[in-house]
Specification:
Layout: E1 4-10, H1 24-43, E2 48-53, E3 56-58, E4 67-77, E5 81-90, E6 96-107, H2 130-138, H3 145-154
Coenzyme A binds near residues 49, 51, 80, 81 and 104.
Length: about 160
Amino acid sequence: MALLYRTRRWLKSEDLNAMGTLFGGRLLQWIDEEAFIFAYCQLGMTNVVTKFISEIEFKSRAKLGDVIEFGTDIVKFGTTSVALRCHVRNKRTKKVIVAVDNIVFVSLDNDGKPIPHGITKFEPQGRWSRGSLDRAIENCTEEYEDEIELYKTYGGD
Ligand SMILES: CC(C)(COP(=O)(O)OP(=O)(O)OC[C@H]1O[C@@H](n2cnc3c(N)ncnc32)[C@H](O)[C@@H]1OP(=O)(O)O)[C@@H](O)C(=O)NCCC(=O)NCCS
């Protein structure tokens, strides 16, 4: 499935390291948050914790004033877990800043034990509904390329 770029952030001075470029720890916090929200929307439950984060490759730097975009995608649904990937890119250049290809979340019961989530397939959420995808096709511009890819893959259902 295509990565869907939903969230954008504008880099401010408090997001930078001593070199004046984006601080990696801040970026990892945002990635965990972005991936959690995606997992939460897909599983429909808030009792979800991060279990595993794979290798993290910082591919390029970002600087003050850059706008960065977060793309997420399902890798696989397990029984109690869901695996995602998250890539972050520069909005203007489309250059990848960081790629994390396996982030695993586990759904928990109220005692904190893994519980089956019962979800087996990706469902577009929120603005990725049939109507917005139809509009994306109508307004077929580069800005909507991810939505169009999704529509082609899943038919907007
Ligand atoms: C999440 C937690 C309850 C899981 O406990 P556990 O004993 O490892 O659970 P299980 O062995 O039953 O595994 C649960 C799921 O995680 C998956 N999993 C376990 N270890 C994994 C690993 N290293 N990598 C990827 N997936 C893993 C299992 O495959 C299983 O998925 P499935 O049911 O879809 O097959 C426990 O590890 C925990 O509380 N960790 C701390 C979480 C946390 O604080 N995160 C940071 C803040 S959000």
